[in-house]
Specification:
Length: about 90
């Protein structure tokens, strides 16, 4: 299934990825973790960040997303077993 097919099934409006988010995902080495998440989670994270009115809030939400992607097993502070990572 292509990335486009994955997003075609979303019921919510597709959110654009801001440049600062893309840059942060790459710099923190979690872009692959982000892309491995289901399309709805990718879209929800971006929507959540984009809805913030203050830049400080956007950064706080971005930091939470990066931490959850790095840790694995968490989505929006909820348990997400499908994304658990092996801790060796």
């Amino acid at each position: 299934m292509s990335v486009d097919d994955k997003f075609d099934k979303l019921q919510r409006k597709l959110q654009p990825m801001p440049e600062f988010v893309e840059k942060a995902l790459i710099e923190h080495g979690v872009m692959d973790d982000y892309l491995a998440r289901p399309a709805y989670q990718q879209n929800d994270y971006l929507s959540w960040i984009n809805r913030a009115k203050r830049d400080a809030t956007k950064i706080k939400r971005l930091d939470q997303m990066i931490d959850e992607l790095r840790q694995g097993g968490v989505y929006m502070k909820m348990d997400h077993p499908a994304s658990y990572k092996n801790k060796t």
